[in-house]
């Protein structure tokens, strides 16, 4: 029986049912993306494409592959973003919107716009192609079969290009954001990091055990840019422009409320949005109002403002007069400083700090803050004016009030912002100081520093506050300020006519009264006299105020008695009251120093200087040790140092003398062969208590002045003398003889003598020349010579080799003494105290 052959038709592709099932599955996946706004439009286009596939008769598989490739982009995106749509970054959502939206935002770059427009145009073109393919007749499909297949291939290529373009645009956005984040963080070059074992996270509180030497004014600063939970301290050695020293101690555990690290922080737009997006009300949670820029009317600018107050302007806001501070400059830096100031000022409530009333709502082109109206005046100009117009006592009171205002504001800042002493010292040193309309000091905020900084100083908080208050006295180091005071003083109480002893013949009763001066063009000597008087007033002010301010070991607050005195406004403060306060605290140690003739003055001498001259014209009237020998104790100090060249360097060593009977002082000096040695001696004699000297002068100045016919404020009392003398000794001994095996030709005859030279330069025969150590030779042995001095004025210093001070006979020659000595010119400086005319104002007032 023959087999029956059954022929069946087989298709190489999927059946219609298979394609329909796959199309329905893809449509279900795409439908789930319609509910999310960022992908709803693109998903709708793809659903239209899939629906059109049902009507296509030819090239169905190729069209299905094209639609599946188009859908894969959105399906993959939907799976990646599942559960992340609500907290997705704004930049990513913007890119997705642009991928499917109809409108392209103008803020996007042209490149990104072109990419997104290409993807949208590609999806729309595929949809139109599917609709045309479903409507064409079979005869046309047969004729245009090749063109349809080419179009499908072209659309597949366009989808691939669109996918790659979208990926490239996303990578560019990521790289751009990463670079912005890095640019805001601090760039610190670290050469070496040494771990410090056994150090706790709180090692920064208190004195650091790693500072080997404390020097006044030395500060080691550090910028911490690592995470705050780092569990150790480290010492970083490197160089950076932001550091004041190469050795820096880093504390990664510090959390300063005023300055925060920029690493691991949100980007600036996020910070501003979080800061302003706390609520939609016109007032924030602290009760401060957010102002729109249209609610503020600018008035007269404050042209004299400096530092933090620079650029402030008077303004009207809501019918109230305020002061506005606008933050110009680069936008990122201005926004950061604006947010930092607002966050800081919202926590500060003190009369000596800016009082914030409101701030901009974030829509202003230039951010600003509104403060209570303040008329700022430079603090140095304010003190200079006080010196011109006020008495010495009133000027001292002004500086004391400045210190109290600064201290009160600084301690409030420390409490409100939880700062340690080191951070508070940073605040004090970087703040702006101005004087308001009520004559009170107002502190402007310091500029923010990136990172978390720690400064190590060899002085404490009290010293920082005192130095800051006393800096107002530095204006007298300015020649223009002294000249201004001089011109003013020509018409004030210091220009009464004087006699030949420098005493005032008459004094005006009013401290601001004008005295006529007959000099149309004052002479040089007259101007010098006025400069001297102005300088004396400034010196009296600085010395008196510093004696009333707290010492380094004291609490920063003023003494209660001084604080109470500053609160009394009924009567003007007298200079005697301030001096007595200082003397009662044993703090009046102020004295002034001047150059004086050698041997003319001694401690305890009192007298006067005629006509405001120098100590060259000093007229001695007596000595307090002779009048009251039991009232004072003195101290004599003798120190010295020697200097000589050693191995090409200057070698300085201290020299301690010994005293022989008769007041002879011996100085043993080791001298190397052929060496020059300089010896400097300092003889200091002083009263042990300058405070006691001030008390004596206040008690006895009137009686002493009356006996000698001078005014008591012209009386000068010398409290210290310093005599400096320089000596030299030179060794002229011949060089040592050469050892066996060494050549004689190059041994000491380098100057004018015959000398044979080796053709090989520095050969062993030539090596042991004079001044060098040859082979088989030890180091040169110094010889001890003795310098003898004495405090007696008629004593003449001399050199000898006898430790008991026996002088060498000048006419006797010796083979073991080849030294020559010389003496330099001695100089003498004296320290003295002198009362001011205001100490005796009651005797000369009408």
Automatic annotation (TrEMBL):
User: What InterPro entries does its record include?
Assistant: Adaptor_Cbl_N_dom_sf (IPR036537), Kinase-like_dom_sf (IPR011009), MLKL-like_MCAfunc (IPR059179)
Please give the superkingdom of this protein's source: Eukaryota
One GO biological process from the UniProt record? cell surface receptor signaling pathway
Q: Which CDD domains match?
A: MLKL_NTD
Q: Which Gene3D superfamilies match?
A: Adaptor protein Cbl, N-terminal domain (1.20.930.20), Transferase(Phosphotransferase) domain 1 (1.10.510.10)
> What protein am I looking at?
Protein kinase domain-containing protein
């Amino acid at each position: 029986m023959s087999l029956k052959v059954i022929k069946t038709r087989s298709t190489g592709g999927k059946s219609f049912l298979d394609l329909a099932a796959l199309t329905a599955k893809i449509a279900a996946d795409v439908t789930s993306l319609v509910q999310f706004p960022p992908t709803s439009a693109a998903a709708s286009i793809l659903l239209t494409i899939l629906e059109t596939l049902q009507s296509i008769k030819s090239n169905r598989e190729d069209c299905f592959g094209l639609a599946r490739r188009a859908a894969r982009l959105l399906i993959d995106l939907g799976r990646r973003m599942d559960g992340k749509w609500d907290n997705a970054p704004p930049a990513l959502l913007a890119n997705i919107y642009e991928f499917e939206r109809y409108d392209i935002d103008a803020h996007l770059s042209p490149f990104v716009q072109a990419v997104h427009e290409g993807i949208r145009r590609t999806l729309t073109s595929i949809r139109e192609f599917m609709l045309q393919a479903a409507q064409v007749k079979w005869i046309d499909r047969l004729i245009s079969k090749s063109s349809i297949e080419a179009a499908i291939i072209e659309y597949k290529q366009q989808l691939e290009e669109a996918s790659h373009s979208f990926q490239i645009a996303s990578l560019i956005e990521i790289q751009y954001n990463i670079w912005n984040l890095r640019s805001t963080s601090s760039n610190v070059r670290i050469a070496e990091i040494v771990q410090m074992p056994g150090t706790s996270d709180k090692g920064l509180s208190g004195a650091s055990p790693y500072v080997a030497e404390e020097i006044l004014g030395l500060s080691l600063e550090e910028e911490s840019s690592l995470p705050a939970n780092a569990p150790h301290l480290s010492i970083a050695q490197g160089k950076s422009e932001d550091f004041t020293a190469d050795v820096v101690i880093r504390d990664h555990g510090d959390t300063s409320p005023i300055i925060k690290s920029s690493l691991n922080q949100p980007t600036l737009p996020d910070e501003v949005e979080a800061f302003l997006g706390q609520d939609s009300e016109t007032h924030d949670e602290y009760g401060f109002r957010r102002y729109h820029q249209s609610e503020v009317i600018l008035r007269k600018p404050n042209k004299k403002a400096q530092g933090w107050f620079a650029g402030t302007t008077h303004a009207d806001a809501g019918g109230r007069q305020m002061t506005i501070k606008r933050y110009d400059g680069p936008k990122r830096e201005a926004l950061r400083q604006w947010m930092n100031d607002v966050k800081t000022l919202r926590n500060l409530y003190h009369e000596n700090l800016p009082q914030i009333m409101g701030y901009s709502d974030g829509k202003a082109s230039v951010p600003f803050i509104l403060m209570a109206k303040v008329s700022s005046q430079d603090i140095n100009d304010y003190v200079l004016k006080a010196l011109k117009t006020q008495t010495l006592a009133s000027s001292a009171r002004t500086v004391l009030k400045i210190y109290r205002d600064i201290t009160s504001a600084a301690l409030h800042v420390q409490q409100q912002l939880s700062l340690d002493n080191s951070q508070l010292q940073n605040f004090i040193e970087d703040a702006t100081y101005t004087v308001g309309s009520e004559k009170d000091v107002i502190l402007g905020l310091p500029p923010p520093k990136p990172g978390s900084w720690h400064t190590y100083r060899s002085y404490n908080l009290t010293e920082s506050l005192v130095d800051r208050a006393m800096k107002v006295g530095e204006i007298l180091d300015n020649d223009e300020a002294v000249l201004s005071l001089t011109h003013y003083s020509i018409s004030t109480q210091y220009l009464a006519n004087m006699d030949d002893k420098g005493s005032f013949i008459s004094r005006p009763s009013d401290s601001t009264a004008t005295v006529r001066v007959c000099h149309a063009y004052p002479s040089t000597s007259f101007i010098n006299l006025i400069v001297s008087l102005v300088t004396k007033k400034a010196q009296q002010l600085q010395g008196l105020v510093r004696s009333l301010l707290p010492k380094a070991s004291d609490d920063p607050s003023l003494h209660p008695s001084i604080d109470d005195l500053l609160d009394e406004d009924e009567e003007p403060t007298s200079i005697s009251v301030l001096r007595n306060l200082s003397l009662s605290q044993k703090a009046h140690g102020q004295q002034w120093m001047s150059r004086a003739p050698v041997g003319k003055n001694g401690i305890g001498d009192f007298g006067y200087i005629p006509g405001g001259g120098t100590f060259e014209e000093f007229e001695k009237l007596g000595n307090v040790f002779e009048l009251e020998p039991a009232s004072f104790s003195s101290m004599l100090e003798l120190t010295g140092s020697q200097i000589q060249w050693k191995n090409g360097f200057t070698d300085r060593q201290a020299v301690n003398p010994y005293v022989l009977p008769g007041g002879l002082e011996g100085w043993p000096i080791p001298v190397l062969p052929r060496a020059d040695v300089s010896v400097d001696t300092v003889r200091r004699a002083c009263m042990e208590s300058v405070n006691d000297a001030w008390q004596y002068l206040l008690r006895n100045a009137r009686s002493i002045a009356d006996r000698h016919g001078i005014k008591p404020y012209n009386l000068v009392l010398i409290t210290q003398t310093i005599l400096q003398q320089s000596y030299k000794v030179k060794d002229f001994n011949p060089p040592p003889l050469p050892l066996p095996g060494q050549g004689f030709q190059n041994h000491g005859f380098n100057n004018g003598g015959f000398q044979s030279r080796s053709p090989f330069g520095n050969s062993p025969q030539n090596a042991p020349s004079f001044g060098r150590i040859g082979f088989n030779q030890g180091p040169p042995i110094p010889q001890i010579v003795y310098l003898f001095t004495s405090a007696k004025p008629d004593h003449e210093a001399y050199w000898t080799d006898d430790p008991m001070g026996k002088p060498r006979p000048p006419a006797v020659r010796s083979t073991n003494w080849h030294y020559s000595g010389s003496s330099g010119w001695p100089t003498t400086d004296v320290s003295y105290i002198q009362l001011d005319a205001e100490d005796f104002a009651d005797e000369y007032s009408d």
